[in-house]
Amino acid sequence: MLRIPSIEVNVGIGVYATRCRGIGGAIKRVPEDFIVEEILVDGSRASIKPEDISASNLSKHGRYLICILVKRELDTILAIERIASSIRVSSDRIGYAGIKDSGALTAQHISIGGVPSSKVSQVNVEGLLIKPLGYSNEEISPKKLFGNKFTIVVREIRLREKNIQKRVERIFSELEEFGGIPNFFGHQRFGTSRPITHLVGKYIVKGDLKEAALTFLVYTSSFESPRAKEARRELYETMDFKMALKKFPETLIYERMMIEHLARSPKDYIGAFNKLPLSLRTLFVQAYQSYLFNKFLSERIKRGISLKEAQVGDYAIRLSDIGLPTERFIMVKDSNVSSINEEVRAGRMAVALPLIGPKQPLSEGSQGEIEREILEEEGVSGGDFKRACVIKVN
After folding, report:
1. Which of 191, 276, 310, 391 is most buried, by CB atoms within 10 Å?
2. Which entry of 33, 92, 101, 268 is annotated as an active-site residue?
3. Is 101 among the residues known to form the active site?
4. Phi, psi of 96 (to 5 degrees)
5. Is 183 in contact with 307 (CB distance < 8 Å)?
6. How many domains does the chain fold into?
């Protein structure tokens, strides 16, 4: 049994699908070692070389300007904020399908409402490049996302080439036997260098805005610079927000947004959070939902409940013609379990777990027991959340 490192456990991933060890090595030594290129449901592909992209499906007119955003070592939300500032529009007018890794070279689609391409072409922001493609009457949103193409360089592998090949083949064999790759939310959702977004979200859900703010501001990570760690520790010890404003590095943009407000109004934690972009505030709660989903899925696997065969009490979700989850899902009952599993085997449906929210009922049966136990441990309920949906498990 492989030991699960704390960095996985801390984000709710408590089990691996395979028994075989990985190949070892290191990733992200440089941003170019981790390339992410977005693919939309209509087949549109973003490229880190925008000159290679054609836009035959776009028009010369429409409500939204569709662009390719290429960024290097830059957070998506921060990139959107800087673009909005550069062209002097609200960041709410810029749509995107997904948040891409900050420690990488990435390409994705964005839409900007009500601006000419000439204005966007003049954007000059360090770490990013924008190429306008054309216009559409539909904005870019998460519903448009099909997936991402990853090009990853793994360095410093100690195995010989033939042993690498054997190990990779064994891993794929074990995954096929298991029924696919468990659909965990990865570290990007929680913060790759400082995985705390779900912790902030938990306190927000519980209504403890002070603890949420302090978690965001003072929680340290070994991956941060000594200056950042020292600034966080000093704020934790003194709670002197005016001094913190002098000590926190300029690179900690979001923290400084909150600290500037708290330096003026030390107890107004709601106001401090409202200084952050709406997309980031939303992400905190979404990250906690994702953490709970990871816990649900981990415990299901630990208890030996199949991911490729629906059980009574599970949710099953309808898949589109290209294999993407739709918004149509159904509770599995004694009366339909056989027909649903026929659809699952045919690739037209998949087993799904809920993302907890006020209007989303828990699963029933064995999976429902898991969910209730975990929510009780966490001290939260669906009513504490503001939105809900279900997503497939593999």
Report:
1. 310
2. 101
3. yes
4. -150, 160
5. no
6. 3
